Amino acid sequence: MAVTDEAILKIREMITSGDLAPGDRLPPEKELSERLGLSRSSLREAVKALEVIRVLDVRRGDGTYVTSLEPRLLLEAMAFVVDLHTDRSVLEIFAVRRILEPAAAALAAESITPDALARLDDMIGSIHPGTEVEELVRHDLDFHHAIVEASGNAYLSGLVESMSSGTVRARLWRGITQRGATERTIAEHRGILEALRRGDGRLAEALTLVHIAGIEEWLRDASRPES
Asked: What 3-state DSSP class applies to 145?
């Protein structure tokens, strides 16, 4: 196990044992590294990784705090970032999505029906800033599937659909831990829809690329140790 991952798991144990709770301030770096038997550099890398996924809140000049996520969500988020360090498959899936889905959006702009456009509009209208994260993820999956389906290429649709199950957890944690994820998703989906409504394949392709690449970059940040 990488040293950074070991540090993350030791911080996780502090939460599990009740030594740390949501809102608590972490002990000073020197004290915490000695307590956990870790080097200060590995502890810094762990804190950086946990800050990226919003488990920890580093307040310059004040200290590092556990965020206000429920304990269950904190623990699962920490397991998720360890998984990202050890299993690159989810990043590879998003890299493939970044290739296939923009092309599907460009095809859909040429052939999408008024009914399909109305369905996409209804999907976006059902989501708002207060929507539960699980509902946001279902919306995201359905929205992307509907666009690929509208491309008229059944083989391409099948390929993208086969990757969906491998991205649910990543989508879920982005929704929980990335500030403004719901608002950003709504705005980006609406932009893609408007491009499809205008029949502008190049714009639909570009907006879909930016949308997927943004999630992919968030995942890369979460899995990248501090240099």
From this structure: helix
The amino acid at residue 55 is V
Asked if 195 and 207 touch (Cβ cutoff 8 Å), the reply is yes
What CA–CA distance (Å, rounded) separates 105 from 29?
Answer: 48
Cα(46)–Cα(40) distance, rounded to whole angstroms? 10
For CATH 1.20.120.530, list the domain ranges present in the chain. Answer: 89-223
pLDDT tens per residue across span 104-143: 999 999 999 999 999 999 999 998 888 877 788 889 889 9
Give the predicted TM-score (pTM) of the model: 0.63
**To which CATH superfamily is domain 89-223 assigned?**
GntR ligand-binding domain-like (1.20.120.530)
Report whether 166 contacts 66 (CB < 8 A). Answer: no
Distance CA 48, CA 54 (A): 10
Give the CATH fold of the 3-86 domain: Arc Repressor Mutant, subunit A (1.10.10)
Contact 179, 134 (CB under 8 A): no
What gap in Å lies between CA 219 and CA 212, rounded to an integer? 11
The three-state secondary structure class of 73 is: helix
Helices 89-111 and 168-177: crossing angle, nearest 10°? 90
